């Protein structure tokens, strides 16, 4: 028997994986409409505020770098908040840069670094 909070955490983890796969690895910036809050707060100075800022920045990034991909190593779920540890990888899966654990953009605080 799966406890309700475990099942909920598994569903949240799947939702986060789906977002990363569709948006970052599938280069589908429109996926943000389904997964990211409109008032998303971005702490990266190279990315504009809000969902539209995220979409605009990554549409440009995907255009300039069609090989861009992220590899998720760990997802930690605590209620409705998620932390993701991942790497940027090349087309063969070789690590290009470690990206520190970050809060997923669907958390209630709507913040990402």
**Helix count, DSSP H or I runs of 4 or more residues:** 3
Helix content: 25-40%
Count of beta strands? 5
Average pLDDT, all residues: 82
Shape: globular
Q: Give the SSE order as H and E letters.
A: HHEHEEEE
Structure, explained:
The chain contains three helices and five strands; from the N terminus they run H-H-E-H-E-E-E-E. 36% of the residues lie in helices and 28% in strands. Strand 2 and strand 3 (81-89) form a beta hairpin. The chain has helices at residues 4-25, 32-35, 50-64, and strands at 41-42, 69-78, 81-89, 95-103, 111-112. It is α+β, with helices and mostly antiparallel strands.
Index terms:
3 helices; alpha+beta; 3-stranded antiparallel β-sheet; 113 residues; globular
């Amino acid at each position: 028997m799966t406890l309700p909070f475990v099942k909920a955490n598994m569903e949240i983890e799947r939702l986060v994986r789906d977002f990363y796969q569709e948006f970052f690895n599938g280069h589908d910036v429109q996926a943000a409409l389904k997964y990211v809050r409109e008032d998303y707060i971005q702490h990266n100075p190279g990315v504009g505020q809000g969902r539209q800022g995220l979409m605009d920045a990554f549409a440009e990034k995907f255009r300039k770098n069609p090989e861009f991909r992220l590899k998720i190593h760990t997802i930690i779920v605590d209620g409705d908040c998620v932390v993701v540890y991942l790497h940027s990888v090349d087309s063969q899966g070789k690590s290009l840069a470690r990206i520190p654990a970050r809060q997923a953009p669907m958390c209630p605080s709507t913040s990402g670094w």
